[in-house]
Design brief:
- The strands form three sheets. Strands 1-9-8-5-4-2-3 form a seven-stranded mixed beta sheet, with helices on both faces. A four-stranded antiparallel beta sheet has the order 10-12-14-13.
- Helix 3 runs parallel beside helix 11.
- It is of the alpha/beta class and 377 residues long.
- The protein has a single domain, classed as Type I PLP-dependent aspartate aminotransferase-like (Major domain) (Aspartate Aminotransferase, domain 2, 3-Layer(aba) Sandwich).
- Helices cover 39% and strands 15% of the residues.
- The chain is built from 14 helices and 14 strands.
- The longest helix has 21 residues.
Length: 377
């Protein structure tokens, strides 16, 4: 996933890094409230921290949380930090949205909170899950870390409430070199935010500035081969990072996210244009199946996910990569916390066949041609 950081935003972030960034954090708080219609915002050092806070506010220690079986490993790390037990539900491999029958079984088997994640900018059926959870008195947390400005029934992903998580890490739709946010909506969301507590500290983030600059420099397809050739980066692997006590967003990340927020609509237009061109070619390619967005939705196209024959080789130098190589059921750190025995055919199919293609603004017309050639060949 490529960074959307610009050279101008990197230069602009130097000032907040030197001043402490209180003004940047306050401005980002207000801008996120306006953009998503949130009644409250907690700015954190990562999306993982934001999710850990959300889980602590909705689920007592030892309670059961239903997680998507096919998701970022950090979702599992947040659950472990929150000291909850985990029940996995399946994903529809055709849409990347929750299998509602599987969610319903998790709720009937004791899940008190359900986390719903939008994958690669493709909207997940949060309203459908909320209807099931509401009938059983359970909470729902929307994980919009990969929402990428997509929408569902006219509502922006991340605004489907009552609690939603954003991430500003590498490759997200609004990249800040790090950081995250927990959004609350209405009275219920405000109460949940109060229970979640506040992240600690207020770092300037000089290291974040260096990391963000590296992401900007290496984000172009012409340079993909460099990080892909460094084994120590573990690109394409599942690397588990334990969650920690939530900290506040750095001043640098707050500044970078504000810049990304200002250009989010323009970035979405570029990603959509690239996705439309590539998807058109993918629909005609042999042994390739496109993901279908659920009814009433518009994807944010953080990446373009497709399903391919398992024998097809990916091409990291073009930014073409496999999806998550393991389901959460296979995460060693999570096994002791898993309860239930749900079969997960959809998640296993995605593990076997999902490939994602780049859509970001750094792609040139020549890059798009190379990706299409890979699809056809």
């Amino acid at each position: 996933m490529s960074s959307t950081i610009s050279a101008r935003s990197l230069v602009r972030a130097i000032g907040p890094a030197l001043s402490g960034g209180a003004r940047e954090r306050a401005a980002l708080d207000a801008e996120l409230r306006r953009a998503f219609g949130a009644s409250g915002v907690a700015l954190t050092d990562s999306g993982t921290s934001a999710l850990a806070m959300a889980l602590r506010s909705t689920t007592p220690a030892g309670g059961i949380v239903a997680l998507p079986a096919y998701a970022c490993v950090d979702v599992g790390a947040a659950a472990l930090f929150a000291s909850v037990r985990v029940m996995l539900y399946d994903i529809d491999p055709n849409t990347l949205s929750p299998d509602l029958e599987s969610v319903e079984r998790a709720l009937d088997n004791g899940a008190r909170t359900v986390v719903v994640a939008h994958l690669y900018g493709y909207p997940a059926d949060v309203p459908g899950v909320r209807a099931l959870a509401g009938a059983r008195g359970a909470a729902v947390i929307e994980d919009a870390a990969q929402g990428a400005w997509g929408s569902l029934s006219g509502a922006r992903l991340g605004a489907l409430g009552p609690l939603s998580v954003l991430s500003f890490g590498r490759g997200k739709g609004m990249t800040g070199g790090g950081g995250g946010a927990l959004l609350g909506f209405g009275a219920h969301g405000r109460d949940a935010l109060a229970l979640a507590g506040s992240p600690v500290g207020a770092p300037a983030g000089v290291r974040t500035l260096a990391v963000a600059a590296a992401q900007w420099a290496l984000g172009r397809p012409a340079l993909y081969a460099m990080p892909s050739a460094i084994p120590a980066l573990h690109l394409g692997e599942t690397i588990y990072h334990p969650a920690h006590e939530p900290r506040a967003i750095t001043a640098v990340s707050a500044s970078l996210v504000r810049a990304a927020l200002a250009r989010a609509d323009a970035d979405l237009m570029v990603r959509t244009r690239h996705a439309d061109v590539i998807a058109s070619a993918a629909a005609k390619a042999n042994s390739v199946r496109c993901i279908t967005a659920i009814a009433g939705s518009s994807p944010g196209y953080l990446r373009l996910p497709i399903r391919v024959n398992g024998a097809r080789r990916v091409n990291g130098t073009l930014g073409i990569s496999r999806g998550y190589p393991e389901t959460l059921a296979e995460l060693p750190e999570l096994r002791a916390s898993l309860v239930g025995g749900e079969k997960l055919p959809g998640a296993l199919e995605l593990q076997r066949s999902l490939v994602t293609l780049p859509t970001h603004a750094f792609l040139t017309s020549r890059d798009v041609e190379k990706i299409i050639r890979w699809l056809v060949d």
